[in-house]
């Protein structure tokens, strides 16, 4: 995640991609470590690489949500 991302500092429960898009975050790559199957309380940090799972449409919707101006800026999304 870029420093200007609105998702940085927010827990996954607040972002709520499954409800809003149908996509789920299956892992977060964070520096030299991974958070596999993150829990809803996991907070997005600057530099996180978010790995998504879902249909093509739901992953695209999640990317749009994560890219929404003024909400959550451009993530690094792995499909």
Series of secondary-structure elements, N-terminal to C-terminal: HHEEEHE
Sum up the overall morphology in one term: globular
Number of strands: 4
Name the structural class. Answer: alpha+beta
Output mean pLDDT: 80
* N-end to C-end Cα span: 15 Å
- Work out the helix count: 3
Characteristic key phrases:
3 helices; four-stranded mixed beta sheet; alpha+beta; single chain; 4 strands; disordered C terminus; 79 residues
Outline the structure in words:
The chain is 25% helix and 23% strand. The protein is α+β, with helices and mostly antiparallel strands and 79 residues long. It is globular, with a radius of gyration of 11 Å.
List the helices and strands and how they pair.
Elements: H1 12-15, H2 17-21, E1 24-30, E2 33-36, E3 49-53, H3 56-66, E4 77-78
Parallel strand pairs: 3-4
Antiparallel strand pairs: 1-2, 1-3
Q: How would you briefly describe this protein structure?
A:
Helices cover 25% and strands 23% of the residues. It has helices at 12-15, 17-21, 56-66; strands at residues 24-30, 33-36, 49-53, 77-78.
């Amino acid at each position: 995640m870029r420093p200007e991302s609105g998702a940085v500092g927010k827990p996954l429960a607040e972002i709520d991609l499954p409800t809003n898009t149908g996509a789920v975050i299956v892992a977060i790559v964070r520096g030299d470590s991974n958070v596999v199957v993150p829990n809803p309380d996991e907070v997005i940090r600057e530099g996180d690489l978010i790995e998504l799972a879902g249909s093509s449409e739901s992953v695209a919707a999640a990317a749009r949500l994560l890219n929404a101006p003024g909400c959550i800026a451009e993530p690094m999304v792995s499909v």
